[in-house]
TrEMBL record:
It comes from the Eukaryota. Keywords: Monooxygenase, Oxidoreductase. The keyword Metal-binding does not apply. SUPFAM superfamilies: FAD/NAD(P)-binding domain. Residues 16-25 have a biased composition (Basic residues). This is FAD-binding domain-containing protein. Residues 1-33 are annotated as: Disordered. Gene3D superfamilies: FAD/NAD(P)-binding domain. Belongs to the 3-hydroxybenzoate 6-hydroxylase family. Residues 41-378 form the FAD-binding domain. Residues 1-11 have a biased composition (Polar residues). GO terms for molecular function: FAD binding; monooxygenase activity.
Length: 454
């Protein structure tokens, strides 16, 4: 389902961009010497995921160029979908890609909470977003479509594919620039390095962050396809989130588009266990976990191609005040999962990464427009970004972790109380979604900012 004006195949030809962009200068070197292949740049973003591409697109909208280093040969085609709430759509509106994504993805109208046990009577509670949380916007978006839409806002050559980071060499010279070494031997010196390299970020390790903490739950995720199947084609479900609760396990599914349905299973496991690389074996394991559960869930799973099923451990990192390292070090700063990985229990991982991108881009663009000492200006911009974002991401990370711990309980008495009292009588959707009212603001170029090169 092509949503972007520029496809990922077009980007894959830009392995070593030659065009000159604002904020980038190539140094003449011998192409035969790996050690001497040095490039000087203003802003480098490591990782072409949601946070990395959103940061680059936000900077460009503010008149600032940046180069994105992506270790893959093209945009990532894997993954399933991401659920975006109102705060995430506000960011996409600010960047300018929201409407093209809305056109291809269904607006979710409500939520149905159900029991996995036939004895519990099926539906425990049903919500309408319009009634419970007026103005809420919820859509599940294919990850690939989101990445392509963000990448389409960048000029040709802005993404350098097949550019895997080997190590951060460190700060170089009095101006505080940071040198990066890539696997292909290239050396890049940048005034600003933005680490958007995901949960297992090498840049976060270099900055002194601990490894993300496994929370004791695993997740299966899949994307069912209904291309031309059945009566007239298309998926048969109403645009509602279906949550199904069992003992120590929960599952759910939600329509993404006219032909796609996303589903998940979250289950307790003491340790992640060995990695399974056989797609068919992953799907068999997922189906076995929920054997005897509602048939519509099982049907969605069976309609999922083997290669569209993934299994991952759920992890997070709590940014305790005074204990966690700062989000920036010299000219290096973190954003998205590289800084604050969180469990998906609030549906805020991607939304917070998008928020990070806008806030950080706004700070960096203001520093670039102010002129003066670049190292000092960028350094203060990064610290201001951290101060602005820490109070937002730390509480959400903690809350997501606590919600996950509660809903994953397997005690029979607790589950009976959940199904008989808590969900039917006590749960209120509006207060639970209060965090989605956050507004990141617009992306308006500073007066001194010039438009980037086309």
């Amino acid at each position: 389902m092509a949503l972007a004006t520029t496809s990922s195949h077009a980007f894959s030809s830009c392995l070593h961009p030659r065009r000159r962009h604002r904020g980038r200068r190539n140094v003449a070197v011998s192409p035969r010497s790996e050690v001497q292949r040095r490039e000087e740049m203003e802003i480098v973003i490591v990782g072409a995921g949601v946070a990395g591409l959103a940061t680059a697109a936000s900077l460009r909208r503010l008149g600032v160029g940046a180069t994105v280093l992506e270790q893959g040969a093209s945009l990532r085609a894997g993954g399933t979908s991401l659920t975006l709430f109102k705060n995430g759509w506000r960011v996409l509106d600010a960047i300018g890609v929201a409407d093209e994504l809305r056109a291809k993805h269904l607006r979710v109208q409500g939520m149905k909470m159900r029991s996995a046990s036939p004895a519990a009577g099926g539906v425990l509670r049903e919500f309408s977003f319009e009634e419970e949380a007026p103005g809420q916007e919820v859509r599940a978006v294919e990850r690939r479509a989101l990445l392509e839409a963000l990448a389409s806002r960048l000029p040709p050559g802005a993404i350098s594919f097949s550019s895997k980071l080997r190590r951060v060499v460190g700060q170089q010279g009095p101006d505080g620039a940071t040198e990066l070494e890539l696997e292909d031997g290239r050396r890049i010196v940048a005034k600003v390095v933005v680490g958007c390299d995901g949960v297992n970020s090498p840049i976060a390790r270099w900055m002194g962050f601990s490894e993300p903490r496994y929370v004791g739950h695993m997740a299966f995720r899949g994307l069912a396809r209904y291309d031309g199947a059945g009566d007239g084609g298309g998926q048969p479900f109403e645009a509602k989130v279906n949550y199904i609760y069992g003992r120590g396990m929960r599952a759910g599914f939600v329509p993404v588009s006219a032909t796609r349905v996303y589903w998940f299973i979250c289950f307790n496991r003491q340790s992640p266990g060995p990695k399974i690389t056989d797609p068919a074996a992953l799907k068999r394991e997922a189906l076995e976990l929920v054997r005897g559960w509602p048939e519509d869930l099982l049907a969605v799973m069976r309609d999922t191609p083997d290669d569209a099923v993934v299994r991952t451990p759920l992890v997070d990192r709590w940014l305790w005040p005074g204990l966690a390292p700062p989000a920036s070090r010299g000219g290096v700063v973190l954003a998205g999962d590289a800084w604050h990985p969180m469990t998906p229990n609030l549906g805020q991982g991607a939304c917070c990464a998008l928020e990070d991108a806008v806030v950080l881009a706004r700070r960096l663009a203001a520093a670039a427009a102010a002129g003066g000492d670049a190292a000092s200006s960028y350094g203060e911009a990064m610290r201001a970004y951290e101060r602005e974002r820490w109070g937002r991401v730390f509480p959400l990370t903690a809350r997501a972790g606590l919600v996950g711990a509660l809903v994953q309980w397997g005690n029979p008495a607790v589950c009976a109380a959940r199904d008989g009292v808590v969900i039917p009588r006590l749960v209120r959707l509006g207060p639970f979604l209060e965090h989605t009212n956050f507004d990141c603001g617009l992306l308006e170029p500073p007066p001194a900012a010039a438009a980037p090169s086309p």
